[in-house]
Design a protein that fits this description.
The protein contains 12 helices and 2 strands; from the N terminus they run αββααααααααααα. By secondary structure, it is mainly alpha-helical. It has 3 domains: 2-53, no CATH class; 63-122, Helicase, Ruva Protein, domain 3, CATH 1.10.8.60; 146-241, no CATH class. Strands 1-2 form a two-stranded antiparallel sheet. α4 crosses α6, α7 (146-158) packs across α10 and α10 crosses α11 (203-210). The protein is extended.
Length: 242
């Protein structure tokens, strides 16, 4: 804080390893979701720096306080991430729109952005429906997401055969019974390959859905290919969706 205050006051900075100060002509836009006056009282933020920064103060209400903006912002992010991922832009269904407007949005616009980015990647129909809109803290949808379906298919393929009398009880525990006795690496491999198949071999989409970096995904796929696994290539369709 002291260095920032000096840079604002003196309009010069000291470059790391430099011998002389460098003059700068800058304007600063600072944001915070904290109560800055409380931070000053508690001694965690310098009062003189606060007054230097607080020239023009704009207070932006949280997203839940302006519900009329939710769909406008949501549609903006749908367009942004559809274009970024080379996907056709799809409308948001009425049911999904109600879901978005009724959500609390504790994470504000950033949470909405992540939600719509994920929805664009998970959407498999003609419009973005509730099964693609995965909200924080929301109850699971009756229609599972493509990743959840992939996990269930992996579990089902590896679940032991049950008798007809035990079928109903086994159905409730099919995911657990399919995972018990398998290593984490095996489950991870099958989930990654199922997700890649769902995205028609698109590595970027699969990495975003799985929540890992594209570099990590490529390294794992190389390892799987070296081990003899059938790694879906670009354009390979998901058999379960054809």
């Amino acid at each position: 804080q002291a260095k920032l205050l000096r840079a604002i006051q003196e309009r010069e900075i000291d470059r790391l390893g430099g011998k002389q100060p460098i003059p700068v002509d800058i304007r600063i836009v600072a944001t915070s979701n904290r109560n800055m006056e409380k931070e000053i009282q508690e001694g965690t933020f310098r009062e003189d720096l606060y007054f230097r920064l607080n020239v023009l103060n704009l207070e932006l209400p949280s997203l839940r306080e302006r519900p009329q903006d939710i769909m406008l912002i949501a549609n903006h992010f749908v367009g942004k991430y559809s274009e970024a991922n080379g996907l056709p832009r799809k409308p948001i269904s009425d049911e999904a729109a109600k879901q978005l407007q009724n959500h609390h949005w504790r994470g504000n616009v950033r949470e909405l952005e992540n939600t719509m980015h994920r929805a664009v990647l998970l959407c498999t129909g003609d419009e973005i429906d509730t099964n693609a809109v995965m909200l924080t803290g929301a109850k699971p949808q009756s229609t599972a997401s493509p990743v959840a379906q992939a996990a269930d298919r992996v579990a089902a393929q590896n679940a032991p055969r049950e008798s007809a009398a035990d079928a109903d009880d086994a159905a409730a525990n099919i995911t657990a019974s399919g995972l018990v006795g398998r290593t984490v690496a095996e489950v991870e491999r099958d989930l990654i390959l199922e997700t890649l198949s769902h995205t028609l071999g698109n590595r970027t989409h699969a990495a975003n859905i799985l929540g890992i970096s594209i570099r990590t995904l490529r390294n794992k796929l190389k390892q799987y290919a070296d081990d003899g696994a059938d790694v879906p290539g670009p354009g390979d369709a998901d058999p379960a969706m054809s």
